[in-house]
Specification:
By secondary structure, the protein is of the alpha+beta class. It has a single domain (9-117), classed as Aspartate Aminotransferase, domain 1, CATH 3.90.1150. It has five helices and six strands. It has a six-stranded antiparallel β-sheet with strand order 1-2-3-4-6-5. Strand 5 and strand 6 (92-96) form a beta hairpin. Helix 2 (18-34) packs across helix 5 (103-121). The model has no long low-confidence stretch (mean pLDDT 89).
Amino acid sequence: MAKTNFKSVDQYIASQPEAVQGLLERVRSIIRKAVPGAEEVISYQIPFYKLPGGPVLYFAGWSKHYSLYPATAQVVAAFKDELAPYQISKGTIRFPLSQPVPVKLIERIAKFRAKEVAARKKPKAAAPKKR
């Protein structure tokens, strides 16, 4: 793959094969709708959505699939049955380009990840100060 330096998600999607661009726009739209407060940026040269508490989701297009990251242990456990038809490994969920976009599943994963991030951001009980 040629070295790239994408400046925006629009630029990333435009660089993909024409047949895949609409699909990636759909995934983008689903994530943006599910997590409206997330900032959309490029990180590791792929689209990335983050909240003040940390990363929510990445997505990327490949030759035969598109992927969502991170597939945390909690995500995999919570959506075990729905994710059964898809390949999951090393924190990645792979969706075949040949199948319809699982809109509701991606939406629910995005919302679940946003809750994971928010839970991590909550301040812990302050420890008593030592004198």
